[in-house]
Amino acid sequence: MVLTSSDYIQIIVAIIYAIALFYTVVTFKRTKELDQITITETIFNDLRELDRELSKIPSGSQHDSFRTELYSRLINTIDWLSFLVNKKAISDKRMIEYMKPTLMQYYEDSFVQNILADERYSNSYQQFRKLYQRMKMA
Prior knowledge:
Layout lengths: L4 H52 L7 H23 L6 H23 L10 H12 L1
Helix pairs in contact: 1-2, 2-3, 2-4, 3-4
């Protein structure tokens, strides 16, 4: 069988299409990773700001309502992050492993000590609870 010039052109075009498809897949994967990093960075910036606000509150019972409000905002932010992780919007294993110690510390320190003590929140923050249990098992 003899190959004609049109056969060579078809082979070259097929190779070009394969390279373009590969590049598209790589670009899509990288864009997804960057989106996850951006979302996570934004959430952790919010958490740092809330931590700063909490550290500025003087001790004393007269500031308890403001402190409770900030803890609630902090845990709401973490619950949102937990929702994104649980629903695989953030699925990068390395990123989740990197966040794991911080999230576990937030659960054990901020959540258990400041939120669970309040009966109003007994059924709240299910996504955070679910993520914590999953991280604890791993």
